[in-house]
Design goal:
Layout: E1 7-11, H1 17-26, E2 32-36, H2 48-64, E3 69-72, H3 75-88, E4 93-95, H4 100-106, E5 111-116, H5 118-121, H6 124-131, E6 137-142, H7 146-151, H8 158-173, E7 178-182, H9 190-196, E8 202-204, H10 207-222, E9 232-236, H11 240-246, E10 252-255
Parallel strand pairs: 1-2, 1-3, 2-9, 3-4, 5-6, 5-7, 7-8, 9-10
Helix pairs in contact: 1-10, 2-3
The structure holds D-glutamic acid.
InterPro entries: Asp/Glu/hydantoin_racemase (IPR015942), Asp/Glu_race (IPR001920), Asp/Glu_racemase_AS_1 (IPR018187), Glu_race (IPR004391)
Function: Provides the (R)-glutamate required for cell wall biosynthesis.
Active site: 74, 183
Length: 258
């Protein structure tokens, strides 16, 4: 089964490019189309209804662009809207959720930290998953302000350092040995997070797992491309310079109103 249509990926902004990187690395021949809905970022403070409506808007555009499957490269959109997306559209969806399972299963201190958006942490889906690991203490923290700083090009800034210290210090004091990054923007903060965390605390994100899931779905249901060196196209509806910067000016970034 061959399928030369592109893979569609969307996020509230530039963060999902951390997931796109993993997909592009694992499946370099696949064409990818990425939508950064930066105009509407952050999704993390919006209501479930708003997140569903925005996710549907992004999906409609990716479908118009003939995508064969859609990766919701946003924990907030996945935990609030994936059920509704799957109910409305025929196309397969892959979502991203905070990787509680590997952290809880491997934690020796039985205490893990999760940094995610408010929308993710209050969602039904997240709380349902968290309940399965009741013997593990979960220290959750809303990453207030982190996404807006990343979206406005202030990823490395005194404000960011200060916020990260204030969010991570209580987790260190609570003796976590795993930190789960529950937002696709946060992997870009790993170098700064590592400077704050003691070395024994492991950091986990879900990017590689999502890429492997994408490969499985292509293999089992959707089909791989027969082409080589898949082109990656990025669309954004705000701040193209920040997206170009995070992609090191290596890929086509198109400004579009959506
Ligand atoms: N990158 C997104 C996530 O994974 C959303 C961040 C936001 O827009 O608040 O949750």
């Amino acid at each position: 089964m061959d399928n030369n249509q592109p893979i569609g990926i969307f996020d509230s902004g530039i963060g999902g490019t951390s997931i796109w990187r993993e997909i592009h690395h694992l499946l370099p021949n696949e064409k990818t189309i990425y939508l950064a809905d930066s105009k509407n970022a952050p999704y993390g403070q919006k209501s479930k209804e708003e997140i569903i409506a925005l996710s549907m808007k992004n999906t409609d555009l990716l479908l118009k662009m003939n995508c064969k499957l859609i990766v919701v490269a946003c924990n907030t959109a996945t935990t609030n809207a994936i059920r509704e997306l799957r109910a409305k559209y025929d196309i397969p969806f892959i979502g991203i959720e905070p990787a509680i399972k590997p952290a809880a299963t491997n934690s020796k201190t039985q205490t893990i930290g999760i940094l995610a958006t408010q929308g993710t942490l209050i969602s039904e889906l997240f709380n349902k998953t968290a309940k399965q690991f009741q013997s593990t203490k979960i220290i959750d923290q809303i990453g207030h302000g982190l996404v807006p700083l990343i979206e406005s090009g202030k990823m490395i800034s005194p404000e960011m350092t200060q916020l990260l210290h204030s969010y991570l210090t209580p987790m260190i004091n609570a003796n976590i040995d795993y930190l789960v990054l529950g937002c696709s923007h946060y992997p870009y903060l790993i170098p700064q997070i590592k400077e704050i965390l003691p070395e024994h605390i492991q950091i986990i994100d879900s990017g590689e797992a999502v890429a492997k899931q994408t490969r499985n779905l292509l293999k089992e249901k959707v089909g791989f491309t027969t082409e080589k060196n898949g082109k990656a196209i990025f669309y954004t509806n705000a701040n193209p310079t920040v997206l170009r910067g995070i992609l090191q000016n290596k890929y086509d970034v198109i400004e579009k109103d959506f």
